[in-house]
Write a structure and sequence with these properties.
With about 230 residues, the protein is mainly beta. A hairpin with a 2-residue loop joins strand 11 and strand 12. It contains three helices and 13 strands.
């Protein structure tokens, strides 16, 4: 879709079983080929009105604009390209994972087909993705990935990640994939970190591709006003 909005529930579980809940809303739109995305936290109180804004430019040589707004700082902080492999606000998803929504920046990787496999009863193509150079690997925090792609809709169902030293790092599992307004939509993403024993589950609801979204939502000025202003 050219635009979308959704509600996002996050469940974060540490190795001792302690559970933290987060609620947020997300908006996305395309302006030409530029993708603009913003996420606003709704609860709990200690993270409410925290916001993350991304302007993802189509030009490969141009760094994306990424801004994180923390209410305690009263201003937005820019996230540089070299920070895109950092983990996003206590989750097991990196800034890059959030920006790409489980997809790939083609220019960052070289790909190789490994096999055709059946995953949970679904026909998939298994691919290997390797960063194009060491600099990209350091920025992403990944030295290698294996991904399973559903051949019926080209959605990634599973990803295995290795760190830059090629040690097992984490696993992404995608489920509850169904059409909303004619568009295949992922409703459940679970990332498990094998090094820390921590996991993050993202559940999307109230997904809409037709709801009107104001352009002002995707500005730095909007970040400090919060999601409801």
């Amino acid at each position: 879709g050219r635009q979308s909005s959704s509600r996002l529930s996050m469940t974060l579980i540490d190795r001792r079983g302690k559970v933290r809940q987060r609620e947020a809303i997300t908006f996305r739109q395309y302006v030409g080929e530029e993708k603009q995305t913003v996420l606003y936290y709704l609860s709990p109180r200690n993270v409410k009105n925290t916001a993350f804004l991304i302007h993802d430019f189509p030009e490969v040589e141009r760094d994306d604009d990424q801004w994180l707004s923390l209410p305690a700082l009263r201003k937005a902080r820019r996230i540089s390209a070299s920070d895109r492999g950092d983990y996003f606000l206590g989750t097991d998803f990196t800034y890059e994972d959030i920006k790409k929504e489980g997809k790939f920046e083609i220019a960052d990787f070289s790909f190789k087909t490994l096999a055709k496999e059946t995953l949970n009863g679904v026909d998939t193509i298994k691919l290997e993705a390797q960063p194009i150079d060491k600099k990209t690997a350091r920025e992403l925090g990944y030295g290698r990935q294996e991904i399973w792609v559903d051949t019926s809709n080209w959605i990634i169902l599973k990803s295995e990640y290795w760190d830059i030293k090629l040690n097992p790092l984490k696993t992404l599992s995608v489920s509850d994939i169904r059409k909303i307004e004619g568009i295949w939509s992922r409703h459940n993403l679970k990332m498990t970190n094998h090094k820390t024993g921590h996991s993050s589950e993202f559940i999307f609801s109230d997904i809409s591709y037709n709801k009107s979204i104001k352009n002002s939502v995707f500005t730095r000025q909007a970040l400090s006003r919060g999601a409801t202003k």
